[in-house]
Amino acid sequence: MIVEIGHYALALALGVSVIQALVPLWGLSRQDRALAAVGTSAALIGFALVALSFAALVASYVRSDFSVANVFENSHSAQPLLYKFTSVWGNHEGSLLLWVLILTLFGALVALSHRSLPPRLRAGALAAQGLVAAAFLAFTLFTSNPFRRLSPAPAEGQDLNPILQDLGLAIHPPLLYIGYVGFSMTYAFAVAALIDGRIDAMWARAVRPWTLLAWTFLTLGIAMGSYWAYYELGWGGWWFWDPVENASFMPWLAGTALIHSTVVMEKRDALKVWTILLAILTFSLSLLGTFVVRSGVLTSVHSFATDPARGLFILLILVFFVGGSLALFAWRAPLLRQGGLFAPVSRESALVVNNIFLATACATVFVGTLYPLALEMLTGDKISVGAPFFNATFVPVVVPLLLLLPIGQSLAWKRGDLLGAAQRNAAAFAIAAVAALALIAFTRGGPVLAPLGVGLGLFLVLGAGFDLAERVVARASGWPAMLSRARGLPRSAWGTALAHAGIGLSIIGIAAAAWSSEAIAVLKPGERLTAGRYTVVLESVLPRTGPNFRAEVARFQLFSGDRELAPLEASKRVYTARAMPTTEAGIHTDWLSQAYVSLGEGQDGGLAVRLYDKPLILLIWIGAIVMAFGGALSLTDRRFRLAAPRRAAPAAAAQPAE
Amino acid sequence: MRRLLLALAFLALALPAAHAVQPDEVLKDPVLEQRARAISSGLRCLVCQNQSIDDSNAPLARDLRLLVRERLTAGDSDKAVLDFVVARYGDFVLLRPPFNAHTVLLWSAPFLILLGGAAFAWRRRRGPATPGAAAPLTAEEQRRLEGLLREKQD
């Protein structure tokens, strides 16, 4: 019964979202305020219905109701409760429902932020958002229905894919989806502005919190996915330039550009047309990512044909929303008036340079990801574009951008002083350069690019810190004055500095990867293996039984030199329901570095063991968290508090209204 | 199975288990082994999804790793090894595509886009030296303006 209620609510939500899409547009064209306001209640009702539907699916998972095909295929009665819960989005159908849930939640938040938005803009944005929701609800209902029943009901489920039974992957999809879907709001606002034919700083102020929110979550989602790959896949890699990774990285790059261009628009009323285009492109890339992941088109052109209905449907969605919005842009953009003049050397110009580089970086990933597909369709030739290509093209595009970042950051609006900006960063640059040179001398014979990378990262961290310090110290005399100045700095200034320093930290972690070392050997109990600074001694190999898996656990003692650090466990699991093996790496965190052990096959009475020394590797993800924290801090800036949607409380209050 | 993985995690890779290079494959000469690892990380595991043979535990990847090490032990240069593998499996096996007529756009795209973007921004720059033309008044605004002017004259 619960399942049918959920199914019915989903169908109703489709109807409501069609109303949300069409009636406000009709109202806008007839100048009828009452009709235009229908979008507000439709958005709230739509969210309540989808939430009900999602709750029904969660309930069937938690109760292990295997009469539901989706539950049967992706759950098992012996699973821990947490994984029963996260299995809901551990599959195609459920994750789509989560996607739609987040989409309608954002719609409801926009509907509730009524005082801060111009009514015409809000009506248009809700209409555009309703259209997106309608498309994805139809996709879910017609091609990927999570509520399909099985008769007779099987007694036991097939279990969730074992490598997804992991806390990291449990929270990774929601984070990523909040990011993807958050950009649908900026898209909706862009479409609304185009329909309205008017755009101003008010628009930028309304849109910026959504962009920041989406960007913050996307940053966390990508970092989480990367860390998951690092510890779960078992060979210590953390970024593979896989098409599916690239699919999430492209919206991140475009979204980063968008955050910067909306700043220019908000402060100086310039770059309007470009910002609108960027808002459209960012969500288009999110949709492309969804298409890539859902259709499997990138695995090979042929795997697309294995499930043509889904692939075709999502391709149609993609073509409609990307093509439609770009057509609208071509038609209406000339109506938008440009404003805000600035000199070639100014903060605005620096942000234009930032956008050119970020757009190029994004396009590089785009071309590299889709080129093999296009080439195969046009000529039949098969080529591979992998990590070596991206390292050779992406890095040279990004390095100049990062080198210029601290200088651009210290240029004034309207008309800046290049020499002065360079001088202000001279100290940071000098310290970073000396550090890099010292590292080169210290690690002579080792990789040369790594110290330069560390220097670049350091330059970014110091540049961000000095910029803040200067704002606090300048013209203030004595500690109390400085303290009050520090408190008086807008939170967005702190946020910006943190985000930029976060990139620097990540770069240091990435560069330091060049110093990692690896050793492989067959070990018998009592034998040792050394990689870099770490040594492990294999103590014992034991069998162990988990709730839904059997494991072979190897116990090690970890040493650094002669110093005993910690006991360490690595294991190989076989999940019984699917007879699928996974590896669980043993990781010891040693300040910012990690020792990483994983197991291979047994050979000649011993066990194949890999040991890695990964210096400073945690900085990669710490940097990402610092970036996200910067984004969140900017989000709480005073000037958004009026415009920012009120979260949590109104959303909860909206539910009983149904 | 594989599709489900792809559908779920944005990081979905072909096979979950690790352990590419096995201990029995490792060459005694560390310099040679280092070269073998470098070459392997640029060769695609043909039956996997976007994985290098260095990362993959597929049997075919193992065969290819052994082949690379065999050629290196026989005294081949890095380039000779790559040529040998490409002659057998085609350009598809290279994760870094060669520069040729088919890939010229791929390799030049970042450069062209950067240049195009910079040129576009430069042409569209509007400094104080070249003030943008004020937008012409609409008919409605023109009427109101004339009305106001007339009022003033009266």
Task: Give an overview of the whole structure.
Chain A is of the alpha+beta class and 658 residues long. Chain A has helices at residues 2-30, 33-36, 38-62, 69-74, 81-86, 92-112, 119-143, 167-196, 201-232, 243-268, 272-295, 308-332, 347-379, 387-409, 418-424, 426-442, 449-473, 479-488, 491-512, 618-635, 638-641, 649-654; strands at 517-523, 528-531, 534-545, 549-560, 563-575, 580-584, 586-590, 593-603, 606-614. In chain A, 64% of the residues lie in helices and 12% in strands. In chain A, the strands form two sheets. In chain A, strands 2-3-4-5-6 form a five-stranded antiparallel sheet, with no helix packed on it. A four-stranded antiparallel sheet of chain A has the order 1-9-8-7, with no helix packed on it. In chain A, a hairpin with a 2-residue loop joins strand 4 (549-560) and strand 5. With 154 residues, chain B is mainly alpha-helical. Helix content of chain B is 53%, strand content 0%. Chain B is built from six helices and no strands. Chain B has helices spanning 2-8, 30-40, 59-73, 78-89, 104-124, 139-153. The longest helix of chain B has 21 residues, at 104-124. Chains A and B meet through helix 8, helix 9, helix 10, helix 11 and helix 13 of A and helix 1 and helix 5 of B.
Structural class of chain A: alpha+beta
Shape of chain B: rod-shaped
Helix content of chain B: 40-55%
**According to CATH, what is the topology of the domain at 2-93 in chain B?**
Helicase, Ruva Protein, domain 3
Helix content of chain A: 55-70%
Q: Mean pLDDT score of chain B, rounded?
A: 77
Organism (chain B): Bosea minatitlanensis
Family (chain B): Belongs to the CcmH/CycL/Ccl2/NrfF family.
Signal peptide (chain B): 1-20
Transmembrane segments (chain B): 104-122
Ordered list of secondary-structure elements with their pairings:
The complex is a heterodimer of chains A (658) and B (154).
Chain A: H1 2-30, H2 33-36, H3 38-62, H4 69-74, H5 81-86, H6 92-112, H7 119-143, H8 167-196, H9 201-232, H10 243-268, H11 272-295, H12 308-332, H13 347-379, H14 387-409, H15 418-424, H16 426-442, H17 449-473, H18 479-488, H19 491-512, E1 517-523, E2 528-531, E3 534-545, E4 549-560, E5 563-575, E6 580-584, E7 586-590, E8 593-603, E9 606-614, H20 618-635, H21 638-641, H22 649-654
Antiparallel strand pairs in A: 1-9, 2-3, 3-4, 4-5, 5-6, 7-8, 8-9
Chain B: H1 2-8, H2 30-40, H3 59-73, H4 78-89, H5 104-124, H6 139-153
Helix pairs in contact in B: 2-3, 3-4
